[in-house]
Amino acid sequence: MVTPLPHHALQEPARVWFEALRTRICAAFEAIEDEADTADAPPGRFHAKRWRRLSESDANGGDDGGGGEMRLMHGRVFEKVGVNVSTVWGEFSPDFAAQIPGAAADRRFWASGISLVAHMRSPHVPAVHMNTRLIVTTEGWFAGGADITPAAPESAAAKADAAAFHDRLRAACDAFDPDYYPRFKDWCDRYFYLPHRGERRGLGGIFYDHLRSDDAARDFAFTRAVGEAFLDIYPAIVRRRMHASWTPSEREHLLIRRGRYVEFNLLYDRGTLFGLKTGGNIEAILMSLPPEVRWP
Q1: Burial of 249 (0-12, 13-18, 19+ CB in 10 A)
Q2: I need a surface site. Which of 25, 30, 135, 276 has the fewest CB within 10 A?
């Protein structure tokens, strides 16, 4: 008799949590839009678009399914921000299953998560990424993280923002395991790295994958704490910098730095690959790309 994974009981609570966190983040970002000190445009608002996962098995009565919702906002503070949630299930392709823990012998999977990327209009407000998810095959695990990407990472302001961001994530980690922050920070630095340029994408944060301890409920609690930490610190950083004026040259530098973001997400990002390999919505998968970018 096969013993059910503890993660099976967490599937519905995880889906509910990711969707609730999405709603709270969108409300927080819209509140920031209302506070912008510019009258040349109305405050941004999120527009939602639901999508359904399609696969080859749909035509054959298979049980592949699920979908998600993309919420996208173009505003006066947030030049482009997307907050996506999805819950999908079905079977991995044979070649992709070989790369996923617990899927080689049984290709069935279930996955749910939230993914967020914000590109800011001001060069003084750092871009940010956050995602957390639960994946279940014959194994089950949580994954995710958050990282911050200022346009001028060498500046004193960017370093101060990064320090505050890291401090909040460290507090979330330390509440569960003092080894989490140094371990996940190092993982983030290694993961969000562009080998072809020999440089990091930004000023880091945390990244974790295959978090599967002997206490699945505690792993879920940690994943919730990461979401709460992000919601606590990032709006505070935005409010600290959003009213500062900038020059055309600073804006041009921001657009060039965004090129690094594009290069990483198209060449190396695992989430992009996972979405493409599981029949995800193309618009939602490529939501992370900035609306305007330059290469010198």
Answers
A1: exposed
A2: 276
